[in-house]
Amino acid sequence: MSETVLMEEMTWRQIKEAIQQGKDTAILVSASIEQHGPHLPTATDTIIGYATAEAVARKLGNALVAPLIRPALSRHHIDFPGTIALRLETFVKVLEEYCFCLRAHGFKKIVLFVSHGGNSDALRAFVPSIAKKVGPDLQLLAVQPVEKHIKAFQDFLKTKGITIQRAGVHAAFSETSVMLALRPDLVAMDKAKPGLTEEAFYRPENLEKSKIASFIHGVKSQSSIGVLGDPTGSNAAVGKEILERHANDIVEEIKNNLA
Amino acid sequence: MEEMSWVEIKEAIERGKTTVLVLSGSIEQHGPHLPTGTDTYLAYEVGQRAARRLGHVLVASVIRPALSEHHMGFPGSFTLTWETYKDVLDDYCDSLARYGFKDIVLMSSHGGNNAVLKAITPDLAKKLYGKVNIHLVLHTEKGMAQAVAFLKEKGVSAEKAGVHSGYGETCEMLVAKSHLVKMEFAEKGQVDEALYRLENLPRFQIDSFIHGVQHFSENGVLGDPRGANGETGKELIELDVKVVCEEINRAVGRN
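ok -> structure tokens follow
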């Protein structure tokens, strides 16, 4: 097995040596602990976040993965047991304190992205002010806002004959397929059922409105089982490809934006 | 809980798992032979074993990073400020109070969190009074005294057992995550006997907060992990789980 890129699995000396040898980029992913329907575990975004971050770090070759941030912004799922939500203020402080720690250890760049859509707007809004606070020694780059990722897997799944309302945005075909590729032991396909499958909800031009509705009324008002989309027929091979494409998109964006 | 679906969690609570364990771990240096996630892995290990034994307990996602300012001299350590740590705990409790749990038990697998945890628990308990009972279980002191006594019988001194990445913790990690333990890099750290006397530990702790752990140990080890083994680790974990179970039951009134 190749050497781990997860900082939490490494000793301080391994981390120190890795930084000295030029691994000057830290990957910082914001995930969630929140309900994912009757068939997926509450750590779904965390599991997918680690896998994505690991893939990105290996492709970059000069990066280590920081302990992923979870719980985070999941207020819209709070009606479902097991969801843990941070307030926006708490989340931003946690994010900021991570960045200060990473600066202290000599990282030069932090790449931030989300494995949970609900965190995406907060990164967009607060990374600039955090960047200003941490100063010129550390470059912060937030990549792949959630809309971009949704658009990418919608387009890809369309080529496989999967509609956007089936692909979904939460605990549906796309996410369940990725989980089948990563942790099939935690997926209960016999409990997978369609949730909200109204096509209009998932059209790219409506996603902003749909998201705001989730936050105002709670996801429970949109799907009583907590599924936005349809997970039935999910497929590990397709999931693996979604993950791979996502990691490639992130790497490409990083290479285009970081010197 | 993180491996369960919301439906499973709901049903478990309805069937009587009405206690939720919120453990604080850490992400901090653990010498040249243990990973920075050590406290977090041990929190999951002990928490899950205790929960299985007790039967009325679910385990929430372990809080990490937490309070590790004294280890920030070593790459890979992460710390929150205590204000943020309090906010995180506050948000955890506020979320968990909604689901029908009767009791939230706060615990820590990392000594550096204990004092602040003790200071902020009354505030958290007051805020959710009438909705859920919040308890604090500070098992570390009792657990450590017990572990030291146990190891002494085996001929392992208190300064070898240590308080951070020493013999004791390394034995436990050989059970919890042996593939992340690098015994070939295990080195002796700080082994001044006087520092580890129970009556001196509070002073030792304050000094390590002021000066940083690197002031006491260049390699980050407080104790001596050499010779650590999984057999002893199993017994240490068992001792710890036993104390944790007793303390949880006492806290929630299930003696």
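The mean pLDDT of chain B is 96.
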